[in-house]
Amino acid sequence: MAKMITTPRVKYYWVIGATGFVGRNLILELLDRYGDYPLVQIVAVGHHRLDPVVMERTHFLMMPLNKIEKRWIERFPPSYLYHCARMAGSNDFLRRIASSKGERANIRLKKMLENLTSPPIVIYCSGTLMYGNNLEAVDEDSPIQPIAYARAYERAERPWHKKSNYMDIRMAFPAWIFGGDSWFMSFYLNPAETRKKVPVYGDGGQQMSLIHVQDVAGQLIHIAEHGEKSNHYNIYGTELTTQANFAQTVAEEADLQTEILSEKEIEKNYGKTVLEALTSSMPIKTQHIKWRAGYNFKFPNWRLMVREVVSLHRNN
Predict the structure, then answer these.
(1) Mean of per-residue pLDDT scores for the chain
(2) What DSSP character marks residue 136?
(3) Residue 302: CB atoms within 10 Å
(4) Which of 81, 160, 176, 225 would bridge with 14, disulfide CB 3.0–4.6 Å?
(5) 11-177+210-237+284-298 belongs to which CATH class?
(6) Can you count the helices (H) and strands (E) in the chain?
């Protein structure tokens, strides 16, 4: 009897929000691991901006979250889907509108994925603002009690929090994501350039768990490939620090002094939502000790992260 020859099936790894801060780094990490492996194809869904690397080395689809087409999901049926997209707004009112649209978009996307013959493993990237302001470290069983930006965006995430009877959904909650973009640029480097001092927000005693954006990308993949079905995962760096200590380290690397901004000044300059985010304390821990021990950090020391990013910013 002739032997039956089976052709290995191509696996499609989707990244939604592929040109954003986390999504682009996730794409780069996936390309580094699988770029030379033809049986893994990366599908990048982006919106608002174009990125040559992403466009040239992936199946790039330019469409917003609420316009993802069923035909592409059927054409490239995902084995893993990394969801790093959020419909955003520039103020609290617009964020609430965006969150309502995001909820509808996520319900629609979830149904399309569940209707596939083999639904993917979904890794949804949320954030630790969903846990609220805490003095003691919280793990994955802690209740969702969102503050600041998360208060507006929590609605959009509900379809994924509800889990699924047909699909493996794994929620990821990154700590303060560190890199040459996002909050670090807006609230530390830009003000330092303007005022020639690094701000300390509020009393500076807020606890911070920091993680480099490249390690966020690495841990999202670690969740997908080594995590357990339908579990939540807190992802963070290796050492807890205070916001005052963090600001002092940034100041030393930039050869500047620090200055304290009172809550009144923060609210005046940035508004209540930013005030709540910057003055909150967010220490986290994880129940998944063995899973976390199996990940090798690219940036295990947050002080070295600061040194690298400040140096790159200065040189640029």
Answers:
(1) 93
(2) S
(3) 23
(4) 81
(5) alpha beta
(6) 13, 12
